[in-house]
Amino acid sequence: MDMQGLSAICAGLGDVKEDNNGNRVGYKKGQYCLDNLKDLLRFLRRDDPQSRQVFKQVCKWNTSSKDLIPIIEHCQDDRNLVLNA
């Protein structure tokens, strides 16, 4: 498994915007967010069904709650992006 590639994909999705109190107020998608989402899906589809290393690593990095859910919540105007999240 290409951990550096997977890490770059997850890091390139975007960043959560927070106010001064640390509350989430939005999400700033990365420049290649859609491409990274497609690559992440490709990694997950090709993940070994026995060991599930990609799935476990994505869960360990908490990518779902840090990136995927905020993309769905805050980028609803971009239908293609939401469907790939």
From TrEMBL:
Any one GO cellular component localisation term in the record: replication fork protection complex
GO molecular function, one term: DNA binding
Location of the protein in the cell: Nucleus
Keywords, ordered alphabetically: Cell cycle, Nucleus
Pfam families: TIMELESS
Sequence ranges assigned to domain Timeless N-terminal in this UniProt record: 27-83
GO terms, biological process: DNA repair; DNA replication checkpoint signaling; replication fork arrest
Protein's name according to its UniProt entry: Timeless N-terminal domain-containing protein
Species annotation: Punica granatum
